[in-house]
Amino acid sequence: MTQTPTSKDGCVWRATTGLRKGLPSKAVHSSSANLHEEYDVIVIGAGFTGLTAARDLYPHAKTLLIDARDRIGGRTWTSNLDGQEFEMGGMWVHWWQTFMWGELVKYELHKNITTASGTTVPEKVYSRNKNVLEVNEEEGFDERLDQLIAKFFDIDGLSLRDIVDHPYDTFHKREIFQKYDKMTSQERIDALDIEDTDKIFLATFISNFGLTTADQIGFAEACKWFSLTGTTSMNIKDTMGLYKLGNGGMTSLANAIFDEYEGDRIFNSPVKRVTQTASCATVETEAGVAFKAKYVICTIPLNVLKDVEFSPPFSPLRAEACAVGHPGRGGKILYTITPPEPPFMSSSTLPTDLSFLFTTHENTAGDSGYLVSFVHTDSKIRDFSDADAVKAAFRAMVPETCKSEIKEYIYHDWRNDPYAQGTWCCFEANYSTRYLEELQSKHGERVIMASSDYADGWRGCIDGAIEQGIRSAMTVKKLIKF
Amino acid sequence: MTQTPTSKDGCVWRATTGLRKGLPSKAVHSSSANLHEEYDVIVIGAGFTGLTAARDLYPHAKTLLIDARDRIGGRTWTSNLDGQEFEMGGMWVHWWQTFMWGELVKYELHKNITTASGTTVPEKVYSRNKNVLEVNEEEGFDERLDQLIAKFFDIDGLSLRDIVDHPYDTFHKREIFQKYDKMTSQERIDALDIEDTDKIFLATFISNFGLTTADQIGFAEACKWFSLTGTTSMNIKDTMGLYKLGNGGMTSLANAIFDEYEGDRIFNSPVKRVTQTASCATVETEAGVAFKAKYVICTIPLNVLKDVEFSPPFSPLRAEACAVGHPGRGGKILYTITPPEPPFMSSSTLPTDLSFLFTTHENTAGDSGYLVSFVHTDSKIRDFSDADAVKAAFRAMVPETCKSEIKEYIYHDWRNDPYAQGTWCCFEANYSTRYLEELQSKHGERVIMASSDYADGWRGCIDGAIEQGIRSAMTVKKLIKF
Prior knowledge:
Two copies of one chain form a homodimer. The first copy, chain A, has 15 helices and 21 strands. By secondary structure, the first copy, chain A, is α/β, with parallel strands linked by helices. Chain A has a nine-stranded mixed sheet with strand order 2-1-20-16-19-18-17-8-9, sandwiched between helices. In chain A, strands 3, 4, 11, 12, 13, 14, 15 and 21 form an eight-stranded mixed sheet that branches. In chain A, strands 5-6 form a two-stranded antiparallel ribbon. The interface of A and B includes residues 95 and 96 of A.
């Protein structure tokens, strides 16, 4: 058995030894020994979009896969620490997440799915409403949420299907979608004839679509989520908060795709500039190395695009879309506590720092409990190495009766990661209307833009990333052929 | 514009001209001009399983795709008649049908989805209960069905998830699944404390999972369907009875996959014998032509396998599974009536001949209405060219107030089609327990078995076919590589 390599990404804090940067991960890979100056296609980014695009293209085109990091997976990767697997980014899988599920079954990894105890059978559900931590029994929780969700999209005598009848074709009913895209989810909630506590409860739930606040999530965008996940709280939890991948985690899927790819690859190579002429495109790294290709698939995250030089430059509209970006800019913290807590799920919104916190099933060591949390985009915690602040954030999400001690926490501060500059994407009001089609269009004739951040289906998810990878590969395959 | 070729499959009957065999279809293709004697892989069957397997393999292996028919698509194909598109077999699409949806988006065909009027907004819902045709308003219908479905799987204090927690991994909870796999759906219905009319109503609904009767559908098998489709009647209708593909129909998807395939192909070549030795496999056609290959992917439908000679022969268990087969052996009839009827959906069970009948949206000609129906497996109609019987079958599904005249009907008699010998697959009680793993296993070292009929997920659907094609291609890719 070879030792698991260590990525520069992520950090671990321990009560005993303090902070250490970098985490072991099977997502770390080496560059090709020999690279060429010219390729048919260069794929920028080895997240799930780039991995699937490169895999689909390499039999048909001389391909180079290039990434800024020392590892594959982008905003999704699994760290292996002390025999435990920790998902440092994307983690939820389900068979209604079309593209990801297809890949899992293709590589026979789907039988490895497992569940997170806090979301499956929580004994307690907490929801923090400003300064009060409410304790709900699971049963009433779902019914209450279902009723509120039904009211949320029951607008102007329309049904959800009247607004979003086709979640993979955003503008299928362009006029009506764009009408409701003007409204924020918070505005919609404010207009409901429900109790104030229910408004906060519903806003907290919907804020999790984007790790932001409901005023930063478009109403039509939220409707699109409900259209994909089903409309009951059970469906929503099932599809995006219940099943995760055991036995290697999400990196096992990334590695399965990467293993199939036989083209060239180069890591630790942030891209500085992408140039195109009538005859070819050139990709230059920060280190000054240049590669030429007929076509480039650019999978750089939306919030990072503004920092890369494109020549000729982006259209004014695309440049504006990149400057605005998407609002999700939190980070992920995984706590190890002792003794373990019984399964629970806790959610909150500002001014609390964590959006949610729940127990997971990784309880193999008898005296340790593992918990997953996401730090809110607008949390006051700006530096995750501040152990006191991170510990206080945990305390705010559990009742005072919880006396467990935090032994360790590991994190990926996605906001301050220069190659992500954010978590998952969920659009603000009017963003789809203004920018989506521009973002999805080619930049010039030779640069195909592809990212989970502007996918059609499960936007912001691993599934959307794979959708974009498969579609961009088909686009390039056709361009090369004709 | 080239003329649409005509397949030998299907028939059209017209009031004016009587019966004519064969129907125009863009699924008809020519064989390769030059074939070889030896390949890396031979894929038997150009249905969706074979198409995807061949497409995924051809860049990595010298591949031959062979089919008994003059067309691609297997049990799914679109006929083009007088400017209308008619789905002669599989037709429903939805984004929760993982593999099919992935392919639709890959080829940018997903924006072509449309709906069938009779299942979307039926003005009337009829259900025939022996000799009485009930007329239900749509509203009460769904609520009634939802309550009955909930009772159906509320057994021994278990929830649906307790029985089938993972629809793509049938034996994930082997003991409990196999316990309930012993029971038929009819036995489960009979045990419910509900009115007799509700029993018939529920049995009729569930019988449509297999185009048979509820006593021929395993209870655990029915639970698996609910697990895939969601558990409400709305979810079920959405996922498998609402959206179809416009602008070319399902054959446009088959053609997109086939267009990407660049290997050899031969049509009109039923396979007579598949032989394997330690070093290679040989496929012989009825015409006496033999092709050799390292590996064979056999996608011949379950009910047809018994008629093909395998040497060495199948294991006794697989041979038994093939002899039993699956019970769905009906056929499809599409009626053209004048004048059109307002949107309706009608369903029934034995002794009525049609399992269901509904209006579709293909109402482009002002004076014509189009309807889709499936003939029940145990219908007394044994010959679809018997126009009087086919017309009487229609009359039994609509009230006497419907005076529309049948101008034309087209059909594919799947039961009597030697290369299908059935419609879609839904297992009887105990069939999964006894045979599923054996059917999915390789036959010897060189013949990989793959069919929608024993897929893990959407078994019996186009989706299951693509699942099997993608997985079998991966299996062969690994075998070739190592």
